[in-house]
Structures are given as C-alpha cells and as structure tokens.
From TrEMBL:
Origin species: Streptomyces pseudovenezuelae
Classification via InterPro entries: FA58C, Galactose-bd-like_sf, GH, Glyco_hydro_29, Glyco_hydro_29_N, TAT_signal
Pfam family, one: Alpha_L_fucos
Documented EC number(s): 3.2.1.51
PROSITE patterns: TAT
Family under the similarity heading: Belongs to the glycosyl hydrolase 29 family.
Species lineage: Bacteria, Bacillati, Actinomycetota, Actinomycetes, Kitasatosporales
Protein name: alpha-L-fucosidase
Principal EC category: hydrolase
Length: 510
C-alpha cells in the first residue's frame, strides 16, 4: 500500500520527519500539559498557572492503570550481576523453559494491567534479533539462535489483556566496547531506519534526525521495536550513564528519541526520563505524602525533561516549592510520579533472595497508588525463563489482600449532594468505615491543596481524617472504624474549582 508523504517539524528545532504524522502532536495540543514560567511571575501567578495545567490523553490513560509490572530479564539473570559488563558470551542466555504466557497469567492474576520488559539493559544485550548488534538472543544457541523474547512477551501480554511496555537503557556497555557509545562523535543528520546489507524492509516512513553515532544506534533499535512488535503503551528510559572513563561522555539525543517515539507510538507514555512520567525519586515504591502531578521543570541536554528542584526533594509541587524552584523553572508541567520497586531485593533474579511479604507489598500499594502515583513492581523471571512459583503465589496474595482492604464501596448508590469544595454522602443508614478513597477529575487538573473528611455523629460533623493533595487517587486509612450514616469531604484550600471524581467509603475485611 502506498502511503502519502508529507513533511512536518516537531517542537524541537531541526527535527524533520518524513512520513505520516502520528496523533501525539494533536493530543498534546488538545491539553495544556505545560505552561511557561516567567521570572516576573508572582506566587499568585505561579499558582494560577499550575491550576491551568492539564494532562494529555496518554497521561490520563497511564494514570488509570494504577498497578504496572517490570520484568528485568537478560544475561544478568544468568551471570548473577545487576549491571552487566557488555562482553558476556551471548550463549550464557539459556532460558530453556521460557513461558511468557505464564508471566502474563501471573501478572494479570496479581492485578497488573501493563508490563514493561527490559528489551536492552545497561549491558547492551538485546532480547530480540536486532540488525544493529550481535549482542542479542540470535547469537545464543538457545532455540538455535531463532529465539525472540520480545515477540513472545508482546504476544503473551496482549493475549492476556495486558498492555505492553518496553525498557531500553540509554547506557550500553557493549556498544562502548565496540567504539560506538561515548566515542566523541558529533551530532549530525541521520536517516532512520538505516538500512543494512540484505535488509528486506521497505519503510513507508523515514526520519532525518540529529544524533551521535550511538544516538543513531538507539534510534534504529527503537525503530525496530516500535514497528515490528505491535502497539506499545509505555517506553521506559532511565538516565543511566555507562561505566566509562571520566573524560568520556555520551550526551543522549533525547529530542530525537522522543520525536521517534511520538511518531511511531503516539499513544505511548515516555518514562521516566521522558516528558510524560517521572521517577518518584526512590526505589522503595513510596511516593511523597503530598504528591503533585503538576511540578516545575526545566529542559536539559537536547530537550530532556528534568526537575527544576532535585529529584529527591520532599516537596515537588506546593506553593512554596513553585516559588523556590522559579529561578530554575522553564515550565510548570503535568509530570506524574511512577514508583518503581522490586518484589525481591535485586532487579534481576537471584536464587538466594525471597519476595517481599504481603504486608510489605500492601504498604507499598497504599504508599504509591494511595498517594497519586502509579506502582511499578518488578517481578524478575528466573534462569528457566519463568516467574518463580513463590513470586507467583505472592502476586496472587497481594491482589487478594488489596481486594480485602478495599472491598465493596459502601458509597455506591448513596445520595450525594455537592456544593463548591464540598461533597456530602448519605448512606441511608449507619455503616462502619475505615478506608476512604478520593479522586479528582484530573481532566480539569489537580487543584486540592488541603481537605478534611468528616462524619456526622451525635448531631455534629466530626473530623475523621485530614490531608493535603488528592490528585488521581488518594487512599486514607482511618486508625479505627468510624460508624456514621452521613459523610462529608470538605476542601479547605484549593488552586481553582475542584471537581471530585470519587468519594469512596470502605470497611476493610482484613
């Protein structure tokens, strides 16, 4: 089929793409997900601008997932390392019992809705037969060199109703050993895909993008992944640098990488070194007590979205934070938090490690999903290519525990009355409640700065809980059950008009 061609230019100057534009640009224009900051802005100006920031369609879709999974798998699984060296013998990769349907079934049973595979970790070993490196599954005797973990993974996830994510590490120890990574090459226009000898592709889209030698290698790898394995819903980059001498550096071509992803996978969220999602700042799976999705950002290193404050600051988005960050801020942006943590101590499988307890995982759930973030739980396949039976059981136990913590919403069918900054529920008769779940309609931004939850008891409204932010999801655990018929959410401070999407009441069965 012949595809009409036209030229369009992205927001990053000098990035020209020949082909059919994706939907990403239109999606971003529909919503003001970032607003420029001026040095002259007062605190009132900053708060007003923050109140006007809205998420894109892809960000809203991602936030609704709540629980996502990581699958760290590669040569490290067999060498016992967490960060590979790049000179591993590919033949060490021998997952004789690989069963990605088992992965998908276990993750779905655990309540997860998207899974991200480490297609390329820092060592540079690639889990599919790439045209651009020999450090791949095709160089292993596993399945006679015809294995393709990414193909199996993507097919299995979709077959079980899970969305597909891919992780490609910017660092690449193997390409450093081959003189490509951090070789000092200048950025110059590169044609993507770069066809190789015997290449049977006839791409209907080509891209001319500025990149270093290694940046072009990454672009070609991304092109393969995003054009040959079906729809991708999340592309995950970290900011890792390779283990290279201090006098060497690889400045990543973020603008070109972002452009290619937006063009080939317009619905994919780019995380966590990306414009759509940010790293929460730790690897414990716990968000801040008050986690803002609208935070001050700056642009670094060829369009990389970065924190105006430090990534680990305890306050990223309050009024005080907006003022503190102003000198370094380019924009206020919808940049929600993703909380990554591993079910075991390491990111890759190690036989001597055990999964976290159900109690611990439940604390992580309430500390991430319950604080306006999305949980990204790593569950590493073992040397057989399977999720360990202990981990599979733990995933099921985790999902069952969350279901018991938040069983039927007692507020369903309740009479609801609303007023500016206030929602009142009448349950019809007294019910015991010890969990409260709240959500703003984030299509209209994140507005709540402080609120209280009250129960009508003994003829008066009594405060039972108070907190700061709400965002897409806030779960409050009451210290003891409270029995009442009438309940009220009262916003005591906000940036603009508040739209409440959820006011749920629960009695834990734990």
């Amino acid at each position: 089929m012949t595809v009409s061609r036209r030229l369009f230019v992205t927001a990053a100057a000098g990035l020209a793409v020949t082909g059919v534009p994706g939907r990403a640009a239109a999606l971003d224009r529909d919503r003001c997900y970032r607003i420029p900051v001026s040095p002259d802005d007062t605190e009132a100006d900053l708060v007003r601008k923050a109140s006007q920031v809205r998420p894109t369609a892809r960000q809203i879709a991602w936030q609704s997932l709540e629980r996502t999974a990581f699958l760290h798998f590669g040569v490290n699984t067999f060498t016992g390392l967490e960060w590979g060296t790049g000179d591993e013998d590919p033949d060490v990769f021998q997952p004789a019992g690989l069963d990605t349907d088992q992965w998908a079934a276990a993750l779905k049973d655990g309540g997860f809705r998207l899974a991200i595979l480490t297609v390329k970790h820092h060592d540079g070993f690639v889990l599919y037969p790439s045209r651009y490196t020999d450090h791949t599954v095709a160089s292993s005797s596993w399945r006679d060199g015809r294995g393709d973990v990414l193909r199996s993974f993507a097919d299995s996830m979709r077959r079980h109703g899970l969305k597909v994510g891919v992780y490609l590490s910017p660092a690449d120890e193997n390409q450093y050993l081959h003189g490509v990574y951090a070789n000092g090459s200048a950025r110059s226009p590169r044609t993507i895909p770069t066809l190789v000898a015997g290449d049977d592709r006839t791409p209907d889209r080509s891209f001319t993008l500025p990149a270093t030698d290694y940046g072009a290698h990454m672009l070609n790898t991304l092109y393969e992944v995003l054009t040959e394995y079906g729809p991708v819903d999340e592309v995950w980059f970290d900011g890792a640098q390779g283990h290279i001498p201090p006098d060497k550096v690889e400045s990543y071509d973020w603008d070109s990488w972002y452009t290619l992803v937006r063009s080939l996978a317009p619905d994919a969220a780019i995380a966590v070194t990306g414009p759509d999602l940010r790293w929460v700042g730790n690897e414990s799976g716990i968000a801040r007590e008050d986690e803002w999705s609208v935070i001050p950002v700056k642009e670094n290193q060829y369009g990389r979205t970065d924190w105006a404050l430090s990534y680990d600051t305890p306050d990223e988005g309050s009024r005080a934070a907006l003022v503190k960050a102003q000198p370094a801020t380019d924009h206020l942006q919808w940049w929600p938090a993703e909380c990554d943590v591993s079910i075991r101590d390491g990111w890759f499988y190690h036989a001597d490690q055990q999964p976290k307890s159900v109690d611990y995982l439940t604390e992580i759930f309430f500390g991430s999903v319950g604080r306006n973030a999305v949980l990204l739980l790593n569950v590493p396949p073992d040397t057989d290519g399977l999720l360990h039976p202990t981990d599979v059981v733990r995933l099921r136990e985790f999902r069952e525990r969350v279901d018991r913590e938040l069983p039927r919403d007692l507020a369903q069918g309740a009479h609801r009355t609303t007023a500016p900054g206030r929602v009142t529920l009448d349950l019809g008769h007294e019910r015991e409640v010890d969990r409260v779940r709240l959500a703003e309609d984030i299509r209209h931004g994140q507005q709540v700065e402080d609120f209280v939850v009250e129960a009508f008891r003994d003829g008066t409204w009594t405060e039972v809980a108070a907190a700061g932010t709400i965002g897409a999801s806030r779960i409050l655990l009451l210290p003891s059950p409270v029995r009442a018929r009438r309940w009220r959410l009262r916003v005591t401070r906000s940036r603009s008009a508040v739209r409440v999407a959820e006011f749920g009441l629960y009695r834990s069965e734990v």
